[in-house]
Structure prediction request, 301 residues.
Amino acid sequence: MKKVLIDTDCGIDDAIAILMALACKDFEVVGITTVSGNVYVDKVNQNVLRLLSFLNREDIPVFRGASGPLSQKPVRAETIHGKDGLGSVFLPETQKSLESQNAIEGIYLLAKQNPGLTIITLGPLTNIAMAVNLYPELNHLMGNIIAMGGAIDRGNVTRYAEFNFYADPESVQYVLNTPIPMEIIPWDPCAEQMFTEEEIKALIPENNRVGDLFLSLQQLPFSFVEKYYGVRSTILPDPCAMAYAIDEKVALRKLVGDIRMELNCNTHRGETVQCEGDRMNIILKLDRIKFLNILKTILIL
Ligand code: BDR
Ligand code: CA
Prediction:
């Protein structure tokens, strides 16, 4: 069993990625840490707690994380994820509460209990940077980081920058400066995988409550994409990253390389700049069929 911790700004596609991790027979999700990103952290907490209750997985501890980025004003993505972060989809109220420790302490405790822990990040890297700063032992306790973030050719927030890395580029650079093994699934290979409403509907059997949730969650992204491209479709960046974490064979092409963040306050701020080195794997292309097969596993939950 691979022990994983998910750090998330949950988020419509984050919610689906969490479902995938919970459906994965090879994963033990030892904890979830929340972070401000798509929406403010209090909303992220509610989304994660409600999702876990809906799935009868209240055993998984949830730790409240950073309320904003290290050194800039917050950036949100409410046009894509809705004001509550989950497109106003109905998830019942929950009795489950947050752990008393914060996300930084949670990451440290869980990494100490599970040396070699894999951290899967689906949002800005604020918590990870703060945790490694406060507890440098994490440099060696953490096994690896698999991050959805960055853009190689074209971003989604600006021409150059992808949301998760743009939302807190200083924290990304901080993490890049550590020796923790890291792999990134940038925006580009995820954006290449667009799924129409028909394709998504075809995956979902009747009377499947997780399938129904998945479809309801996609309504806002479908409408958003329709407005710009004229077709009801969706892109699933966090599920793409989770699929890679579950089975790296989903990557058809990856590059061993290195990146740095553009931190200057100009139009390139938040850009993923490729540089010399072999710091990490950068995923460049995904296998659509393999991805869909992993995605479909959520229907067993
Ligand atoms: C990333 O930004 C967020 O809006 C998504 O949840 C994903 O993590 C894609 O750029
Ligand atoms: Ca996310």
